[in-house]
Design brief:
It contains two helices and five strands; from the N terminus they run ββββαβα. By secondary structure, it is α+β, with helices and mostly antiparallel strands. It has a domain at 7-55. The protein has a three-stranded antiparallel beta sheet with strand order 4-1-5. Strands 2-3 form a two-stranded antiparallel sheet. Residues 59-71 have a biased composition (Basic and acidic residues). Residues 45-87 are annotated as: Disordered.
Length: 87
């Protein structure tokens, strides 16, 4: 593993991220490179035996789905809906 490779580590103790100032809760996956992971291990916020998990790779379908317009429902709502307003 290259030192600059970023992996996800499972947080076991809450801490404030010094880089983002966010509270990181136990049970969340925290992305870090090897150097940062060593600091977090020493601080006791990730498990000593946590070797990290690969970050998910974006799939090609994720990018193409952003540009698609949903056409399942006609503009103005569902034409089969019952009008429940009473006059």
């Amino acid at each position: 593993m290259a030192k600059s490779e970023t992996l996800n580590y499972t947080v076991i103790s809450a801490f404030n991220d010094k880089q983002t100032n966010d509270l990181i809760e136990p049970g969340t996956l925290y992305p870090a490179d090897q150097k940062r992971a060593n600091v977090l291990r020493a601080a006791g916020v990730i498990a000593e035996d946590d070797e990290g998990q690969s970050l998910p790779k974006p799939s090609k379908t994720d990018d193409s789905d952003k540009d698609k317009v949903k056409t399942d429902v006609p503009a103005g709502g569902d034409s089969d809906a019952v009008d429940t307003a009473k006059s």
